[in-house]
Amino acid sequence: MAIDSDPAIAAKLIRVANSAMYAGSDPVDTTSGALVRLGWSTTRQLVTSFAMREMFNTDSASLKRRMQKLWRHSIEIAATCFVVAGKTRQFEPETALLAGLLENVGAIAVITYARKYPEITARPTELERVIETLHPRVGNMMLRSWGLPENVALVPLESRDWYRAPTRAPDYCCLVLFANLLHRLSQQPRPDMPPIHELPCLSGLGLGEITLESVLALAESTKTQICKMRTLLGA
What is the pLDDT of residue 106? Predict the structure, then answer.
């Protein structure tokens, strides 16, 4: 099996198959056993997600910390998307996981390209300005070129628009935005953000009425699951 050629990904796949989210009566110890338990579609999404880790690497010492910070944020959002999606009927958890990881894929490309311009990388404030300006469109262009579904390809472009209108179809942009909302609420002190009741895109998530109290309750009830998924992704 091709997956076996990458021991790190194979090990992660087996670990996920044996996790509480997928485990059956007996543990699996081979990639073929993991594939049977998870199914082809889930396996493909998970392998793509695990392979994403390699994109967050750079041999530039000055940029390595920025990449590591980006990776930590990405696995936090991806793990949250996965767990929240599992509480709805309209989102596929594995697609949600991938959408969360891909939110900042454009930033990776911008940082990698910025290595050619030390006058920018030597000035952190300027580098952040360039990343924030370019990464949404760059990320969208990358995901389109990779042939990802439109509702995933839009994530880098629109997942930071707090006031984007909801859509009738399952919208992974809104799910990623909601994951960022939960992440912000977990921080102390909490960053400035608009009132939850003013965010129209949250109404289509299939989570019932969205209020500060309901969001905080969801954050508390999913904390352990998110932590476990984060560990699986970051291991």
Answer: 92
